[in-house]
Amino acid sequence: MAAQTRKTRDRAKPASDNKQDASETTEKVVFINRCAKVVKGGRRFSFSALIVAGDRKGGVGIGFGKANEVSEAIRKATDAARKRMVTVSVHENTIPHETVGEFGGGRVLLRPASPGTGVIAGGGVRAVIEAAGIRDVLAKSLGSSNPSNVVKATLEALRTLRPKEEFFKMRGKPFRRPAPEAAPA
Q1: Is 6 exposed, middle or buried (0-12, 13-18, 19+ CB in 10 A)?
Q2: CATH for 3-86, among 3.30.160.20, 3.30.70.20, 1.10.3720.10, 3.30.450.80?
Q3: CATH class in words for 88-170
Q4: Distance (Å, rounded) from C-alpha 128 to C-alpha 135?
Q5: Of 20, 65, 139, 141, which is most buried with the most CB atoms under 10 A?
Q6: What strands lie across the sheet with 99-103, from one edge to the other?
Q7: 104: region left, alpha or beta (phi > 0 left; psi from -120 to 50 alpha)
Q8: Strand partners, 159
Q9: Residue 91 — very low, low, confident or very high, per pLDDT cuts 50/70/90?
Q10: Where do the structural domains in the chain lie, given as residue ranges?
Q11: Nearest by Cα to 56 from 128, 121, 139
């Protein structure tokens, strides 16, 4: 479960590619699984990799890749994660409100935290949150400990986040930002 950070290199790609390809992305290996197939000559091993990629500015994606070599599985998963990046709502280095995400047997609770708290999460939840660029959050995995379901549940929880402005807009109310407090002289 090693962490990898790479800068996306400018390659000769069509201009229609996502803007995330041109920016710096971070990849983290969440889980690598080895599978054995027994054949006449012995065992044949294959590998699967679960990767989280993010731009640390609200964009995050997950990818799953399978191959006969670990490095090839990681490459496939990284490509899949970059293709499937989604944008999540981040409010001043934390999340706008509490949310629960579910996927399969995995359930993840995310709560906003005050500045300076840090990321209180473990495993796959931490990987997704850090890749999205969230710095202060409290998280708890409530259901299954299956890495794939936990990561997908975390992404589902982040997808359900909405900024305060959107709630006001849905209710047909005007939204006015509070005036910044003046510092005492």
Answers
A1: exposed
A2: 3.30.160.20
A3: alpha beta
A4: 12
A5: 139
A6: 99-103, 106-112, 137-141, 119-120
A7: left
A8: none
A9: confident
A10: 3-86, 88-170
A11: 128
The CB density around residue 105, as the number of other CB atoms within 10 Å, is 12
Q: Which residue has the tokens 């027994």?
A: 38
**Strand pairing category for 119-120 and 106-112:** unpaired
**What would the pLDDT profile of 25-63 be if each residue is shown by its tens digit?**
899 999 999 999 999 999 999 999 999 999 999 899 999
CA-CA distance, 95 to 154, in Å (whole number)? 13
The CA distance from 53 to 104, in Å, is 21
DSSP at 12: S
| CA 106, 109, 115, 117 torsion-angle sign | negative
Residue owning tokens 């989604």: 86
CA-to-CA dists, residue 143 to 71, 101, 108, 130, angstroms: 30, 10, 7, 21
Q: Which amino acid is at 182?
A: A
pTM score above 0.90? no
Q: How many angstroms from the chain centroid is the CA of residue 96? A: 16
The pLDDT > 70 percentage for the chain reads 83
pLDDT in tens, 130-172: 999 999 999 999 989 999 999 999 999 999 988 877 877 888 8
